[in-house]
Design brief:
The complex is a heterodimer of chains A (400) and B (297). By secondary structure, chain A is an alpha+beta fold. Chain A is 37% helix and 22% strand. Chain B is built from eleven helices and 14 strands. Chain B has helices at residues 19-30, 57-64, 78-87, 102-114, 143-146, 159-171, 192-200, 218-227, 256-261, 267-276, 286-296, and strands spanning 11-14, 35-39, 47-48, 51-54, 68-71, 92-95, 118-120, 127-129, 133-135, 149-156, 176-181, 207-212, 235-239, 280-281. A seven-stranded mixed β-sheet of chain B has the order 3-4-2-1-5-6-7, sandwiched between helices. Chain B has a seven-stranded mixed β-sheet with strand order 9-8-11-10-12-13-14, sandwiched between helices. In chain B, strand 1 (11-14), helix 1 (19-30) and strand 2 (35-39) form a beta-alpha-beta unit. Chain B starts with 10 loop residues before the first strand and ends with a helix. The chains are: A alpha+beta (400), B alpha/beta (297). At the A-B interface, strand 7, strand 8, helix 4, strand 10 and helix 8 of A face helix 1, helix 4, helix 6 and helix 9 of B.
Chain lengths: 400, 297
């Protein structure tokens, strides 16, 4: 979950880390009030859960007197990053030097990237002067100690009093990175003023979704909720039933997909496209027992007005019984009043309790259950053909 | 021979008293696996399916000489469970738990490496050396039907796909020396290439089949190893997820690792890179057998 800057900074403030004074506002009037409280130059930042706002005019440095007028322009603005509903107002920092610092992960280890060329987009630094970025893996068992961070900053070219302060702050930020279960934490710029005081002017944090359950202190992020009501419904079911999340992402085609086990789902999706079909969604679901999430994805598929058919394509299951999937299908077909004579449903579903699954599917009626040994490609071909047929028939019906 | 597990493997099941632990233990015993111990703290002295239960992995090892561990442990306990097994001297640790938080995952990986253990997973359904041993639920209730013995090593980022690949091998007259579900989480104990190194050195493996996906540097590392001749045996690759490239999902936010580490993150880029490096690309499972026949003459 990407945090908006106001939340990221309030978390940092709680950890007693040096964050400039600031607050979020929803109206231009409130922006004006906050700005005159701070006085002088203030930063107005559109609150969107992303970085890269500088170029899009979503971060503006203005005189406090003009803040309300500028906020009027910003609020309600539709940008490629989303609608601006709130603005963060921050006391302007007096910047003497700007640094860059980010914690993230490679596949197996945490990585620290630092640079004394802060303030600009780090991709630009990487493209033009990659030698100015120092990256280093961090041993998660030892963590990052202050003297190690000082050594790294020294190698990045930092000298003098700032070296000690920035190094120590970096070690504290490592602990924050761990405590918050952050997937990524970027401070850019990390500013030093003329008196040598540090200030985390730009702060971006992304929390590991897999760890959200143990962070009740984090707010629900309504801005993170998808606009699509069916995607939102599946998310809600995940939240209510922790562990083994179902994923449902709507696309613009007409073939509904309930595919499980990650790999087979990806492969079948590729195959369907190669055969000229167009999936209406992608999904991924743990095949472990439990039908609630399976039903949620099926409900989403059946209630998507663009979906004309459904492929249930699982890997050959090895640990979970397949009849639970058909149970979920029976429930969802019933509750969504699906007419299986006009809505093709193809099952490629093999594994433990397959005989029971086949019997149950026969009871639903109108289901095509592919014979054992049918390949993933057979399933893809069957759903593309069936969908083409039903769409063509509908077309004829409409013109008749 | 086979890699990681064979007839001499002695398995301890951490979390043996839970549903999945109990179920998979039953199926593994039926397959002939030498399951010597279970561990559930507070349940020491009990038996599950005739297997003695201990309170700690160290006690299990001291009493039974267990040398491989299968972990059915909930996500919040998984980092500790891996560390416990590694420090008890277990050589191969299989962690089935999925969606392990990144910080826990990297700590567990580091703890296993520090102890010299081989961590399989996270999010794996197991490893099987057909006819010799299996750890994890791999093969389900009928491992013989899904995993015929043979001379092809399989490394898959998806547990289900290892079964699909194996069935495709069977259909084309091949079989499996060892099939490995290396783990579907982004952080896994070992990289795909480290598994291929094992197969490359195994005298009973003639060629390897890998299943890859978008994300992670696994496939790029394999490609580099093929180019440098670190890997000498043929590699057939199937990589899924090309469709994702048509659907950019929002604006990227975490970028430093992506920028520096993962220049070959998409399925298409991985396919291209593997092909250029000398791997055979199978576009569907049916093509795997043909590709192997070409490579092995």
């Amino acid at each position: 979950m990407k945090l908006t800057e106001d939340i990221a900074k309030s978390l940092m403030r709680r950890l007693k880390l040096p964050v400039p004074e600031g607050a979020p506002a929803e109206t231009a009037t409130r922006v004006g009030e906050l700005a005159s409280e701070f006085g002088g130059t203030v930063a107005l930042k559109a609150l969107l859960p992303t970085g890269r706002r500088g170029k899009s005019g979503l971060v503006r440095l203005v005189d406090a007197a003009n803040a309300e007028a500028v906020a009027t322009e910003m609020l309600g603005q539709e940008t490629e990053l989303g609608l601006v509903k709130r603005v963060y107002v921050e006391r302007g920092a007096k910047i003497a030097q700007e640094f860059y610092l980010a914690f993230s992960f490679s596949d197996r280890v945490p990585i620290l990237a630092i640079s004394t060329a802060g303030g600009v987009e780090i991709e630009q630094v990487h493209a033009t002067t990659p030698e100015r970025i120092v990256t280093t893996p961090i041993d998660p068992l030892k963590g990052l100690r202050p003297w190690e961070a000082i050594d790294l900053w020294s190698r990045a070219g930092l000298k003098g009093r700032a070296l000690a302060d920035v190094g120590r702050l970096t070690a504290r930020l490592w602990r924050a990175f761990v405590e918050l279960d952050a997937e990524m934490m970027e401070i850019n710029p990390l500013a030093v003023d003329a008196d040598g005081r540090l200030s985390m002017v730009g702060t971006m944090i992304e929390i590991d979704d897999g760890a959200l359950g143990r962070h009740p202190e984090l707010p629900d992020a309504p801005s993170q909720q998808p606009d699509n009501p069916r995607e939102r419904m599946v998310n809600d079911v995940n939240r209510a039933n922790p562990g083994g999340d179902a994923r449902y992402v709507e696309l613009d085609g007409d073939i509904g997909l309930l595919v499980a086990g990650g790999g087979a789902g990806l492969l079948q999706h590729d195959m369907i496209i190669d055969l000229g079909g167009r999936p209406a969604n992608h999904s991924d679901i743990s095949p472990a027992p439990g039908t609630v999430k399976t039903e949620a994805v099926l409900d989403a598929v059946f209630s998507n007005p663009n979906t004309r058919s459904l492929l249930i394509g699982y890997n050959h299951l090895q640990m979970a019984p397949v009849d639970r999937v058909v149970e979920a299908l029976a429930n969802s077909v019933r509750s969504n009043k699906v007419d299986t004579s006009r809505f093709p449903i193809i099952l490629r579903l093999f594994g433990p309790r397959e005989a029971e699954a086949r019997a149950l599917a026969a009871q639903i009626g109108g289901i095509t259950y592919l014979p054992s040994g049918a390949s993933l490609l057979d399933g893809a071909r069957a759903i593309v053909d069936a969908t083409r047929k039903v769409v063509a028939e509908e077309g004829e019906g409409a013109t008749a | 021979m086979s890699v990681l597990i064979d007839n001499s493997t002695r398995v301890v099941v951490q979390g043996i008293t839970g549903n999945q632990g109990r179920y998979d233990t039953r199926l593994a015993l039926d397959y002939g696996v030498n399951i010597v111990a279970g561990v559930t703290p507070g349940r020491g002295g009990e038996e599950v399916e005739g297997v003695p239960v201990f309170d700690t992995v160290a006690a299990a090892v001291a009493n039974t000489d267990a040398n491989a561990a299968v972990l059915y442990v909930p996500v919040n306990g998984i980092c500790d469970a891996v560390t416990e097994a590694a420090e008890a001297g277990i050589g191969v640790i299989l962690a089935t738990t999925e969606n392990v938080p990144r910080h826990d995952a990297v700590r567990a990986v580091a703890a296993a490496r520090a102890a010299g253990a081989w961590l399989v997973g996270f999010n794996t359904n197991g490893v099987i050396s057909p006819g010799k041993c299996k750890i994890g639920g791999i093969g389900g209730d009928n491992p013989d039907a899904l995993y015929p013995a043979g001379r092809i090593g399989v490394v898959s980022r998806s547990g289900g796909m290892s079964a699909e690949i194996s069935m495709a091998l069977k259909a084309s007259g091949h079989g499996v020396s060892t099939a490995i579900s290396m783990g579907g989480d982004r952080t896994t104990g070992r990289s795909m290439c480290e598994y291929l190194d094992l197969f490359d050195a195994d005298q009973d493996t003639d060629a390897m089949v890998i299943y890859g996906e978008p994300g992670t540097g696994n496939e790029a590392e394999v490609a580099a190893a093929l180019r440098s001749k670190r890997l000498r045996k043929p590699v057939v690759a199937i990589v899924a997820g090309r469709f994702q490239e048509n659907h950019p999902r929002g604006v990227s936010f975490g970028h430093v690792a992506a920028m520096i580490g993962d220049e070959a993150d998409s399925a298409s880029a991985k396919i291209r890179l593997l092909k250029e490096s000398g791997a055979e690309i199978a576009n569907s499972l049916d093509e795997i057998g043909l590709a192997l026949d070409r490579q092995l003459g």
